[in-house]
Amino acid sequence: MFENILTKETISFKDLEEIAFKIACEFANDILRNMLEEYDKKIMDSRDTKEFRHKGKETTTVKAKTGLVEYTRTKYIQKQENGKNKCVYLTDEILNIKEMGQVSGGVIELIVQNISEVSYRVCAEMISKMTGLTISGVGVWNIVQKLGEEIRQYEKEKVEAHQNDKLQAGTKETPTIYQEADGIMIYTQGKDRKEQIEKYKKEHPNEDIPKKVRNIEIKLGMTYEGWKEVGKNRYALVGKEYVAGYMTGEEMANITNANLHSKYDMSKVELRVLNSDGGSWIKRLLTEKTIYQADSYHLKEKITTHVRDTEDSEILKAMFYKREYSKMIEYVEGLKYKYDGEVEEVEKLNELQRYLNKRKETMKRYRDYDGIKQKLKTYSKKTGLKYRNMGCQESNNYCRLTRRMKKKRMSWSKNGSENIAKVITMYASESCTDIIRDLNIQMLSESFTEYAERYIAKIEENIKEMKKKKVKTKELYTFKQGSLEGYPQLKKILENKPISELIYR
């Protein structure tokens, strides 16, 4: 490790920092290995010898923040009910890491934190630089795909449990549930694109293939309780939960309702509001007691793109703010005469008029319904939350999915895009920790946790004693690689001068 450094004409602090970091990682790997192997012995001594027959030792590795941790654990043979033998590694079972490709929970967390912002390759580079682990872009991709599949299965089982009245009801109380739903179109690739094109050709044999055929919609649903003030004129959503994927409106409704049931005491919910642009699938999210309102962002965007004159578009938006919904439709009708003879402009106005007519019953804001404002005041005193106008979906889409999945020239497979969408939205949800727990990923048993705490406590005690006696680290701990033994020059430098002051030539 040190040869390359010592042959340089100069030694920088960065060089020494990297050396120290590698040594620390190797030290940590030794600690982890010793903990696992000692605990494996404990399991071996306390196991049911009739059920688990000892079949020797095998070595494996796990990718951790500190690097590759190599450890040896015991192999057992367990007889199954069908009479067949099964190979079991009890230590691996306790660690719950084999299903994720021998990757630690810490590494998975780093990947989840970064994958919503950067590509698989860049995410791998960041992790390789920040930790003692070297991982590839393909390695990151594999973990995201596996985690996405786990979330899919988790959602499926949760819905089934809810439909069979076997899902444990939540206890959290809230008088309000806000829902928003929308979709983003992404560009497909490979066989998925070919399948969409071939399907369109069969259905429209004499037509040119439009670009939109190559797109597919990821649906995104969001629920929250209200808003809390986090600064002057700044608010944050409380209790955010997301659902994303390629699904029908009914499927999204089932997942959303299961999530709400498992989190809240739904008997305490008095007001439920759904805000959306009005896609046909979104209506499946409605319940008998849900107030439905058209999304203001999409409405204003429609006005901007379909009315050429800025002054006219601002007049229409002002009518919307004043709740003059019928006048808006009448005003658009009048604009047709203004652009008489301009076929393209008139057709755009016709489209806008159809859009407004379709939503004339849902343009009313939920706060304008009889008695709602007074109820919201009462709720606010009870919860401390604010209850504002809705319309957060578009910005949340951008922050969560659009920014990651709709970059220039980016295309996706259907399966791969759904998996990363589920991972991104899981991490953004308030119940992210609960989901990971329920997925059974990286959650160590209580017995191992207790053992680890005692083990670490001993190390901390030794370090304290070492500091008191001013004992050198090497007298208590040795490393497989990276020891200062054999490098007397570097040892002497480090003993006589603080690292921060080193500029060796």
Task: Briefly say what this structure is.
Helix 9 runs antiparallel to helix 12 (343-358), helix 10 (310-321) runs antiparallel to helix 11 (325-338) and helix 11 (325-338) runs antiparallel to helix 12 (343-358). The protein has 18 helices and 10 strands. The chain has helices at residues 3-6, 13-46, 90-95, 105-115, 120-130, 137-163, 190-203, 249-263, 296-306, 310-321, 325-338, 343-358, 372-383, 393-405, 414-428, 432-438, 446-469, 488-496, and strands at residues 52-64, 67-79, 85-88, 176-187, 215-224, 226-231, 234-238, 241-245, 271-276, 290-294.
Produce the secondary structure layout:
Elements: H1 3-6, H2 13-46, E1 52-64, E2 67-79, E3 85-88, H3 90-95, H4 105-115, H5 120-130, H6 137-163, E4 176-187, H7 190-203, E5 215-224, E6 226-231, E7 234-238, E8 241-245, H8 249-263, E9 271-276, E10 290-294, H9 296-306, H10 310-321, H11 325-338, H12 343-358, H13 372-383, H14 393-405, H15 414-428, H16 432-438, H17 446-469, H18 488-496
Parallel strand pairs: 4-9, 9-10
Antiparallel strand pairs: 1-2, 2-3, 4-5, 5-8, 6-7
